[in-house]
Amino acid sequence: MPHLPLALISTVVLLLHAAGVIAAIHALMHTRTPQGAVAWVFGLVLLPYFTLLPYLFLGSKHFSGYVELHHSRLARLRQLDDPAELALSAQYPPHTGAQRYQGISKMLGVPFLSGHRLRLLVNGTASFDAIFTAIAGAEHYVLVQFFIIHDDELGRRLQAALLERAAAGVGVHVLYDGVGSHDLPSSYTAILRAGGVQIHQFATRRWRNRFQLNFRNHRKVVVVDGWRGFVGGLNVGDEYLGRKPPLAPWRDTHMELQGPAVADLQLAFDENWHWITGQPLSLLPPRPSAGQATSLIAATGPADAQETCSLFFVQAIHAARHRLWLTTPYLVPDSAVNAALQLAVFRGVDVRILIPAIPDHRTVFLASTLYAHESVRAGIRVFRYQPGFTHQKVLLIDDDTAAVGSMNLDNRSLRLNFEITALNIDTAFAAEVEQMLRADFEQAVEIDTTDYDRLHNLYRVLIHVARLFSPVL
Fold it and tell me: Which residues of 239-261 are buried (b: 16+ CB within 10 A; e: fewer)?
């Protein structure tokens, strides 16, 4: 009997090491980069007691289960050589400038289409005023999807708006991310369901993929009656209106579009809805619009065959001829995006990046700090926004192209999250975005090539350590 605990401990240790070896083989075969594979293999073989559990949650790069649904629907609904798609492209021929981005169109199976009216929405008040006005005018249905919904003043305002439309007989469908909205009380959703709103949590866990907690649905989408769509960086919470110091004032950007690309916003929502409920939605086609802008909806995620979000940035950066301005709260690019940015500098492109001066997540802020200093040494101009926290995800290319959406420049967005962005070719809209970004840069401080040398030695160590966690930030 005295030897039983020791024997039991030995058996457990042996089983853990055996499980570690099996997991290491899986990591060797499936991890994206050689560096990641080496880290996982050594950790799983030598220290399975500490690495097995994290690997269960962090080791997968594809959202199994969802992949089959995504690929089957993509093949059935969005083929560029489909007669219906060809007719749509003939009806709404894209701007000639769209040819620079055909790699994105081919990769996603989504066409560039003209005929759009665009509206830039700067910050939370303008964005949610427009969204609530659109919801109040809904006659058939409202689709709402956010990463975060809080039960605060703004959240209750959304709740009341959706209940009012549901009471009027409008179909209301809501998705929210289970992790992003982890503190949303069940009473909030119960009130909506009791009022006729169909609301569901986007969850990645099922019996066959119950450990896939690392994937998030980071999309922010609102569609009203199939013809008005909204996309951007804002979630539903008082902090997004700048009401929660120390991150106030909160700087963010959304946009509204009307035109044929709204169908692709609907498709992205419908696919997520189908995954959760098992039932597709019956949605209206978008109304013809009097606009002239060319747009494409880039919906990316961990069910894609390629790393589409990373490739989206790479193609967009390579398309820049003389200017590339981007804003992101998290500057943790992968090697492909980093190389594309540096090559743009060598081509003579004016590359500027706007990032926050204060953190909302400490580790990613530290890692972003190191990437910022390295970018500056490579000739990229990096600015820290001073008035508050900048959360916007905006890309301005040359004088005709602007993208607004949910994509951050970090590994989570590039590989693990469901994201969505509108890529727009229109000189008038691009001019509005330029004016907005110029105002932002005027309220920012540019990082100098000598700033790194002035950092405290301990802080330098911290930012290098933080970068080690880049694959999971």
Answer: bbbbbeeebeebbbbbbbbbbbb
